[in-house]
Design goal:
With 162 residues, the protein is mainly alpha-helical. It has helices spanning 2-19, 22-46, 48-51, 73-97, 105-131, 136-161.
Length: 162
């Protein structure tokens, strides 16, 4: 019985993967990378005083800040690659749940954005506040910039994929 369920699930997954429009998914990943990079750069400029505070130097990864000062090129390259993959992942999540979303354009945009913002708040913002010694203003800044990114991404997803 278990084997039969696993085989049926594998067939459904294979069918679902064939329905994906990979060119659109990659386009969304690229657009997401642009949105995210620009918004995070703006956010970093606006909150730079927190990144420069010596008491927080130990919090940043060795990739981001191997020494005091701006991040090295390796950080930006790695960040772009991870961001692109995150955009593709968001597009895949959208594909997976789009039939459950409202059909009206703006309702669809805002519901998907709300779901992603809620997930971000639950799985990133709250744990960041509880686990890391960072100023709450910086965590709030990250949440706001993520909100903007996810709203723009949701708009992009609905426009491109639907």
């Amino acid at each position: 019985m278990l084997r039969k369920n696993i085989l049926e699930s594998a067939k459904e997954t294979k069918k679902w993967l064939k329905e994906l429009k990979w060119k659109k998914i990659i386009l969304v990943g690229l657009i997401y990378t642009v949105f995210t990079t620009l918004i995070h750069q703006l956010e970093a400029v606006l909150s730079m005083k927190y990144y420069q505070m010596p008491q927080y130097f130990g919090v940043w990864s060795k990739l981001m800040m191997p020494k005091a000062g701006p991040p090295p090129p390796e950080f930006f390259i790695t960040s772009l690659i991870f961001t692109f993959y995150s955009g593709i992942s968001l597009a895949l999540v959208y594909y997976y749940i789009k039939d459950l979303l409202p059909k009206l354009f703006w309702k669809r945009v805002f519901l998907f954005a709300d779901l992603m913002v809620a997930a971000s708040f639950i799985f990133f913002t709250i744990p960041s506040y509880l686990l890391f010694n960072l100023p709450y203003q910086l965590i709030l800044s990250w949440f706001v910039s993520s909100f903007v990114i996810l709203l723009l991404t949701s708009l992009t997803l609905v426009k491109i994929i639907d």
